[in-house]
Amino acid sequence: MYLVGPAERLLLRRVERPVRFDRYPVTVARYRRFLEALREDGTSEWNHPQQPDHVEHTPWTARLKDPAYFTDPRFDNHPAVCVNWWSAYAFAAFEGKRLPTSLEWEAAARGADGRLFPWGDDPDAAPLNCADTWVGRPVVTHQAWREGFAQDAIRRAWTTPVDDRPANRSPFGIVDMAGQVWEWTSTVLKDPGEAVICGGSYDNPLRAVRTGSKGVFRKRGGSNAVGFRCVTELPAEETS
């Protein structure tokens, strides 16, 4: 049983199926191997059965701060971003895995004690990649974000290597679940064209990158602040 939901209205929920999370978000190097395995026309045998026509698995490079992000070895250990939901699904299938549900994601980030951040309830106990980091001070209000981040720091803010902040770790040893990049999940709410994303990103203030932080994003969209990680389903008797 896990405590999930907003801090003022926590719910006790059960995760039914045992899964093993990737320790880190999917990296550029891992995603490149998937791209190299595609057919010549860019399609794949791992596509979602409902994937729309004209969806491409090539990252949306127009959104990247550095157009060489997926080809320059300097970024090999950075999270794969500008990847749409359909491509994240196909990549997970390529590795014999799947995307987590939003409940699985939050439970893995919070642990059994329902902590506010992966490392605990103290917001200053671990370094992470968020707007406060780039501004150099707490970003408490939206006005402070506009003045301190959107005016200057946004030009410097970017992804970092996925193993750069080992203290940003959940009770299960999963790294970078707060900040860095939002992460796709398999959960769909009312609009079938959208999926839930979790965790917040490098351009969100600390107050918005808690373990319960969620949003929705268009499945066909690619953002330089959205990545993903995968889970492996385990036999019922195997829980670690």
UniProtKB/TrEMBL annotation:
<dbReference type="Pfam" id="PF03781">
    <property type="entry name" value="FGE-sulfatase"/>
</dbReference>
<dbReference type="InterPro" id="IPR051043">
    <property type="entry name" value="Sulfatase_Mod_Factor_Kinase"/>
</dbReference>
<dbReference type="InterPro" id="IPR042095">
    <property type="entry name" value="SUMF_sf"/>
</dbReference>
<dbReference type="InterPro" id="IPR005532">
    <property type="entry name" value="SUMF_dom"/>
</dbReference>
<dbReference type="InterPro" id="IPR016187">
    <property type="entry name" value="CTDL_fold"/>
</dbReference>
<protein>
    <submittedName>
        <fullName>Formylglycine-generating enzyme, required for sulfatase activity, contains SUMF1/FGE domain</fullName>
    </submittedName>
</protein>
<dbReference type="GO" id="GO:0120147">
    <property type="term" value="F:formylglycine-generating oxidase activity"/>
</dbReference>
<feature type="domain" description="Sulfatase-modifying factor enzyme-like">
    <location>
        <begin position="15"/>
        <end position="231"/>
    </location>
</feature>
